[in-house]
Amino acid sequence: MRNMIRDYLTLCKWRVVLLMLLTTWAGMYLAAQSSIPWSLWIFTTVGVALMSCSAATLNHIIDHRVDATMDRTKHRPLVSGSITLNAAWVFATLLGVSGFVLLNYGVNTLTAVLTLLAAIGYSAVYSIYLKRATSQNIVIGGLSGAMPPLLGWTAVSGQLDPQGWLLVLIIFTWTPAHFWALCIHRYEDYKNSSYPMLPVTHGIPFTKLNVVLYSLLTVACSLLPYAIGMSGQLYLVSVMLLNIGLMVYALKLQFSTTDDQIALKTFKYSLIYLTGLFFAILLDHYLLLN
Fold first, then answer.
1. How does pLDDT run across 118-139, given as a tens digit for each residue?
2. In angstroms, rounded to a whole number, what is the distance separating the alpha carbons of residues 95 and 49?
3. Which residue, 89, 2, 106, 93, is CA-closest to 46?
């Protein structure tokens, strides 16, 4: 029973979903003019989580044949056979329908539709088409994964505001460098797969340069919340420290002659970076209100 639960959690990519929920909460609290009702918080959190898990499971289903050829993914439940494709389809459908119903009736229709579009963008447009069609797959497809803070924003405000889109922009610019660092670390895996990832199609040196450029773009976008008055000095100091780390790792990767381990460290730091940024923006907002 424990192994089955673990396998289904693997299908959900629960670690990724937890980070998505953090950014969703940031969007909610930044949009709030007063306290958020617990019912709204719960419906939004559970609804977004369920639909995100559904999209992740569909990604496992779509990619299971290629996953079998890669060391990083060859032990996933659908590859090992611990969960059947039919069971995964049922699981994804139940999660997706339940999440949409919760958001539509417990939050608002706008948030439900946006979450559905994001799920379709990731599980269908990115996983089926973009991932196999272009080396810029993660740049174009990254918009779907960047949507959670806007979902939190619309859950509270009921409308699409520029500030919500700004939070999306930060994640959108962060995503390519984050993922390309992993691609460099797993270069041989991707080289043997059918995916046209940037290190394979354009080479590792070109990819490392792009990691630096997108990291610089992320740094610039991360300063915008302070520039427009969304956040205060605590956020500014925190994000500046995080930005120094981001650029140090990007530049270390750029000039490294042994790419594998520094690429993995760059990938791991990028996760710390985004988590820290959204924690900082939440804490800063709380202190400003008090």
1. 999 888 877 777 777 777 878 7
2. 9
3. 106
